[in-house]
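Lay summary. Proteins are chains of building blocks that fold into shapes, and those shapes determine what they do. In this project we predict the shape from the chain. Here is one chain we studied, written as its sequence of building blocks.
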Amino acid sequence: MSFGSRRVETVSDKSLNIESNRLDITPETKIERLLIVRLSAMGDVLHTLPAVHALREAFPHAFIGWLIEERWAELLCAAGSPRRGCRSALRPLVDEVHTVNLKAWRKSPLAIPTLQRMATVWNDVRDAHYDAAVDLQGAMRSAVLARWSGAHVVYGAAEPRESPASLWYTRRVIAHGRHVIEQNISVAQSIIKGRAKLSQAELPGDLPHDPQAELRIGQRLAEHGIGDFAILNPGAGWGAKRWPAGRYGEVAHKLADQGVRSILNYGPGEEELVRVAEAASAGTAQVMNCSITELIALTRRARLFIGGDTGPLHLAGALRVPVVAIYGPTDPARNGPYGTHSIVLRSGESVTTHARRGAADVGMLTIGSEAVVAAANALLGGALRG
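And here is the predicted shape, written in a compact code that computers can read:
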């Protein structure tokens, strides 16, 4: 599919090898207590969920804990709900959520409150007596934490993102697959021991479902008279991944002409971006800031998501909301939307790099709002026909 001179890539109809419910679990692979280590960030945590789902299916009676940065804990456990106990819709995947705040701890590592919090977290982790830990981040800090958990076995990729991390693993796994979700699942397979087909349509969400957050979001939408809507997300982790904010406003204005309102989502530090987008929308877009639990509830209701390579885009993919993805320096084959109907716009001028450059990507600048609206219409039309 192409729009003008731009190259449009689609990510769809994938299949991957993971273990099904019928597993041949040998005695040496039996695990009763398993720790997942994936500390951050939002998109990366979401990319880890299918692998952890596979482990949950393989070991349905196991106690599974997850070590994660406090900022992202709501991806596993709805705000205000217990971090440990019987699983429910509020915490559907893991039995316990252990949280760290490494950024804050590094600022005052010798302060009494920091030391007390570190001791509390680490006592909780070690008191869980995990049989195995799996590091699905591949960084030195995550590998060290996995090893310090006291687990007898520590799994990790043989070629992790930070090479020295592998020194902390007792079992090194050769990861397979192009997309990071597939790579994570291949690490999980080394623990599960078995293969079966799972189609993209069967990918699990495993995200918290909070009735109170659903109610709050419903009320906010009603207050603004919003029915059908698309979420537009101008922000991204660094400048080179951001499509110009004003063009999001142009897209919102054009979608409004077709009866689809736009909600501009933003996170900390992205206030100026959303102000620019709102101004360019000529009053057609509604700015809405949400907690993660509320963003999950909001995204579940959306007809469409439009944005770059950032956490909220991957949230939409996990919830199977159609996605128009605007990519520049990052590779959509590895980090693109997965598990949902999607159209990825990426210029041939964009060069793949994960360098955190602040300057705009030249290739992204060649993608106009018309191309994005055309892609949105293609996905909305397909949804209407379906």
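What the prediction tells us: Confidence is low (pLDDT under 50) at residues 1-28.
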